[in-house]
Amino acid sequence: MTLILGEERLKGTLSMAEAIDLIEEAYQHEAVGQTYCAPRQTTTTKTGWMRLMYAVDFTAGYAAVKAFHLTRGVGVRYVVSLYRLQDGELLAILDGRELTALRTGAVSGVAARYMAPKDATSVGLLGSGNQAITQLEAMAAELPLTSARVFSPTPQNRLVFAERMSERLNLPVQAFDSAEAAFSGQPVVVIATNAAGPDPVMQAAWLSDPVFVCGIGSTRMTSIEIDLDTFRAAQQTVVDTDHATEEAGDLQQALTAGVLDAEGVWTLAELVERRPEPPRKGITVFKSIGSALQDLALAAGYYHRLKSRTDLIQSTDLASLKTPKPWG
């Protein structure tokens, strides 16, 4: 039996705090060698591109495939398929939009748990889209926030974001006229943009000390979020997957320039395993590009929460079994 879980069914099913714990648990499994996450594959088409991601969590007993594609002039569609390892059954097909936004925020929440100043009461955000929403929710779930700042290039967008998030989180969120002003004096800064060019969208000169820098927007080789001086000054750099150093433009730039040593970059699994105390001084940097392991963790969480519902769409004939024929 396969559950079909659309976006409306998923909304509100898992809280941000629950999602953060699910993601941390998946990384605990990775830390002891019980997961596999394949490099993402992207195929360019005449109308856009198709991307595939795959992960296995042997401890949890699941595998997941994420497929998402861009159609130019239309947008991106996401689908996550969850399989049970024991017998290969397709347990659920989930709309990936809500899941992706939630897991991206939750991953940053895990990083903030070990990298952000524990007494951080404010955060500066660069970006006001869907990803910025869950990033702020994650920081509010992990840190004792009393205020937040936001900048995005379109004035109306940042004003609407500030108004809606103030109401949603019962937290005063103020819109600023520049990224530098939004980041000034903040112990936590988040870059959640759709930056697509070679020029960094933030500068180390804007940062305070101590500060946790969280970059989640740029995942392409041609796109730069974080400048070289930030990586040069950072006393700790963490990535959500070891594929990040091969795929993220700002990490590649820092490695090529020699300001970042690949051997000194931790994965989030290593961070979760070692559980260090957040530093009291200096810059810490977390760079996230997303992984199918994160999708798997939340897909399994949604499935466990919803599988007993009797009002959901279910199919008995998806992924029908082809049994091996006997030899001879």
Your description of this structure?
- With 328 residues, the protein is of the alpha/beta class.
- The chain has 2 domains: 2-99 and 292-315, ornithine cyclodeaminase, domain 1 (2-Layer Sandwich), CATH 3.30.1780.10; 107-287, 3-Layer(aba) Sandwich (Rossmann fold).
- Helix content is 35%, strand content 26%.
- The chain has 11 helices and 16 strands.
- The strands form 2 sheets. Strands 1, 2, 3, 4, 5, 6, 7 and 16 form an 8-stranded mixed β-sheet that branches. An 8-stranded parallel β-sheet has the order 10-9-8-11-12-15-13-14.
- Helix 2 (16-31) crosses helix 11 and helix 3 (96-115) runs parallel beside helix 4.
- It is globular and about 70 Å long.
Briefly characterize the structure.
The chain is α/β, with parallel strands linked by helices. It is 35% helix and 26% strand. It has two domains: 2-99 and 292-315, ornithine cyclodeaminase, domain 1 (2-Layer Sandwich); 107-287, NAD(P)-binding Rossmann-like Domain (Rossmann fold).
Index terms:
26% strand; 2 domains; eight-stranded mixed beta sheet; ornithine cyclodeaminase, domain 1; Rossmann fold; alpha/beta; eight-stranded parallel beta sheet
Principal-axis shape equals: globular
Please outline the major beta sheet.
8 strands, mixed
Percent of residues in helices: 25-40%
Written as H for each helix and E for each strand, in order along the chain, the element string is: EHHEEEEEEHEHEHEHEEHEHHEHEHE
Secondary-structure blueprint:
Elements: E1 2-5, H1 7-10, H2 16-31, E2 35-37, E3 41-45, E4 48-57, E5 62-71, E6 75-84, E7 90-95, H3 96-115, E8 122-126, H4 130-142, E9 147-151, H5 155-169, E10 173-175, H6 179-183, E11 188-191, E12 211-215, H7 228-233, E13 234-239, H8 244-247, H9 249-257, E14 266-267, H10 268-274, E15 283-287, H11 292-306, E16 313-315
Parallel strand pairs: 1-7, 8-9, 8-11, 9-10, 11-12, 12-15, 13-14, 13-15
Antiparallel strand pairs: 1-16, 2-4, 3-4, 4-5, 5-6, 6-7
Helix pairs in contact: 2-3, 2-10, 2-11, 3-4, 3-11
